[in-house]
C-alpha cells in the first residue's frame, strides 16, 4: 500500500510517500519561515501563493526520492482541515486533480488526527492497535489539546487551550524578548543555559465557565495568555539591556512555566491508560521531551514521542494515517471542502 501525502495547512509545503502506513519512503518539507519572519507571523496570502508555486515541485521531489512512479501509488491523501482556508485549498485542489487524473482513491485527512498518529511512524514503534487506549497530546503553534483515543478513529477531546497555543506562547514570548520568529527553537536553545526557577511566571489555570465546550475538565485545559502578559510586565519593570546576562534565566523560567502546565495536565489525563503519544512542533522542545521522559519513568508510562522529523508539520503523518485506515474516503473525500476549524474528533 503506497500512499502519496500532501500537506499545506499552514506555512509548510509538504509531500511524502509512505508505505503501509509506517515506512516513510520520502518526506519533503519546504519551510516558508524566511518569507513570514519579517512580519513576525504567518501571512495567509503569502502562504497560499507560495504553496501554489511550490507544491507541484515538492510532490515531484517526494515521488523521485521514494523511487516511485505514478502507477505505483494506491491512493493520494491530503489535509482538509484544520488550518488556513487559502492554504488548505491549494493542497486539496491539487490532490483532487491528481487523484482524478491517476484514477486513484482520494483520502481526506484531519491534520490534528495526523499529529496524533505521527509517533507511530517511528521505526520500532508499535502499531496503534497494539497499544490499546491511549492519550495523545498535540502541541503546536496552532493547537494544544489532550485527546483520548480508544482506537484509531475513536477520539474524545479531554482538554484544549482556551486562548493561545503553547507554540504561540513561545513565539509571542520570543517576540517580546526581541528574539525573532519563530520563537520556539531559539527559546529552547537559550533556555538550556538558564535557571528555570529564576523568575516565578504564572502557571495558567482555567475556570470551569471559561472552558470552550461544556463537559471539558478545566484541569485538563490550558491557558497561555497570562504567562505572556506576565513576561510583558516583567520586562516593563526590569527592561532588558543589550547582552543582558539575565536573558537565559528569563527564557528558562518562561519555558518552565509552559512545560510545567503541560506535564501537570498530561499526568492528570493518564488515569486509566498507560500510553501517552506526543506530536506537534512544540514536541521538539528539549526541556519538554526530558520532562515527559521523566514523567513516564516515574509513573511507569509508555511514552511515544514523534521523531523530530515528524513533530512539526509534515506530509508523512498525512500519508501514514491514510495508510493506517484513517480519513474520509470515496465520495466523502472527493466532495470534501476545506474546513478551517475542523475539530480534532471529526474524521
Ligand atoms: O506543528 P507546527 O510546525 O505548526 C503548527 O501546526 O502550528 O508547530 C510550529 C510551532 C511554532 O510555534 C514553533 O515556535 C514551535 O512549534 N516550535 C518549538 C520548538 N520548535 C518549534 N517550540 C518550542 N521548542 C522548540 N524547540
Ligand atoms: Zn500542525
Q: Which descriptors apply to this entry?
A:
Nucleotidyltransferase, domain 5, 5-stranded mixed β-sheet, binds 5'-O-[(R)-(carboxyoxy)(hydroxy)phosphoryl]adenosine, 12 helices, binds zinc ion, 2 domains, 347 residues, alpha/beta
Task: Tell me what the structure shows.
This protein folds into 2 domains: 2-116 and 311-334, Nucleotidyltransferase, domain 5 (2-Layer Sandwich); 123-305, ATPase, nucleotide binding domain (Nucleotidyltransferase, domain 5). Helix content is 40%, strand content 19%. The chain contains 12 helices and 10 strands. The longest helix has 23 residues, at 44-66. The chain starts with a strand and ends in a 13-residue tail after the last helix. The mean pLDDT is 96. Bound molecules: 5'-O-[(R)-(carboxyoxy)(hydroxy)phosphoryl]adenosine and zinc ion (ZN). Zinc ion is lined by residues 111, 115, 140, 280, 313.
Measured by DSSP, the beta-strand proportion falls in 15-25%
Assign the CATH class of the largest domain.
Answer: Alpha Beta
Q: What value does the average pLDDT take?
A: 96
Largest sheet geometry? 5 strands, mixed
Give the CA-CA distance, first to last residue.
21 Å
CATH architecture call of the largest domain: 2-Layer Sandwich
Class by SSE composition: alpha/beta
Question: Which stretches are low in confidence, meaning pLDDT under 50 for 5 or more residues running?
Answer: none
Output the number of helix runs: 12
The CATH topology of the largest domain comes to Nucleotidyltransferase, domain 5
Query: What general outline do the C-alpha atoms trace?
Result: globular
What is the alpha-carbon Rg in Å? 20 Å
Amino acid at each position: 500500500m503506497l500512499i502519496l501525502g500532501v500537506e499545506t495547512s499552514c506555512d509548510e509545503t509538504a509531500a511524502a510517500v509512505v508505505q503501509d502506513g509506517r515506512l516513510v519512503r520520502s518526506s519533503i518539507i519546504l519551510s516558508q519561515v524566511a518569507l513570514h519572519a519579517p512580519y513576525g507571523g504567518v501571512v495567509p496570502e503569502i502562504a497560499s501563493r507560495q504553496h501554489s508555486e511550490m507544491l507541484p515541485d515538492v510532490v515531484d521531489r517526494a515521488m523521485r526520492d521514494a523511487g516511485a512512479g505514478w502507477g505505483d501509488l494506491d491512493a493520494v491523501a491530503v489535509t482538509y482541515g484544520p488550518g488556513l482556508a487559502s492554504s488548505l485549498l491549494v493542497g486539496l485542489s491539487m490532490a483532487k486533480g491528481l487523484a482524478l487524473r491517476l484514477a486513484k482513491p482520494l483520502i481526506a485527512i484531519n491534520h490534528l488526527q495526523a499529529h496524533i498518529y505521527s509517533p507511530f511512524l517511528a521505526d520500532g514503534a508499535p502499531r496503534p492497535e497494539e497499544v490499546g487506549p491511549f492519550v495523545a497530546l498535540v502541541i503546536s503553534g496552532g493547537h494544544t489539546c489532550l485527546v483520548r483515543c480508544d482506537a484509531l478513529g475513536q477520539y474524545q477531546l479531554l482538554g484544549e487551550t482556551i486562548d493561545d497555543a503553547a507554540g504561540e506562547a513561545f513565539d509571542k514570548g520570543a517576540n517580546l524578548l526581541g528574539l525573532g520568529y519563530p520563537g520556539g527553537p531559539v527559546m529552547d536553545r537559550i533556555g538550556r543555559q538558564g535557571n528555570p526557577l529564576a523568575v516565578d511566571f504564572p502557571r495558567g489555570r482555567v475556570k470551569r465557565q471559561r472552558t470552550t465546550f461544556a463537559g471539558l475538565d478545566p484541569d485538563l485545559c490550558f491557558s497561555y495568555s497570562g504567562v505572556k502578559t506576565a513576561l510583558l510586565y516583567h520586562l516593563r519593570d526590569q527592561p532588558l539591556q543589550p547582552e543582558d546576562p539575565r536573558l537565559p534565566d528569563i527564557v528558562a523560567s518562561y519555558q518552565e512555566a509552559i512545560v510545567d502546565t503541560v506535564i501537570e495536565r498530561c499526568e492528570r489525563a493518564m488515569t486509566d491508560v498507560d500510553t501517552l503519544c506526543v506530536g506537534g512542533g512544540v514536541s521538539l522542545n528539549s526541556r519538554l521531551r526530558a520532562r515527559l521522559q521523566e514523567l513516564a519513568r516515574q509513573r511507569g508510562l509508555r511514552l511515544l514521542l514523534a521523531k523530530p522529523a515528524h513533530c512539526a508539520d509534515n506530509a508523512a503523518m498525512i500519508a501514514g494515517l491514510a495508510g493506517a485506515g484513517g480519513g474520509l474516503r470515496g465520495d466523502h473525500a472527493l466532495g470534501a471542502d476545506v474546513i478551517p476549524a475542523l475539530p480534532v474528533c471529526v474524521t
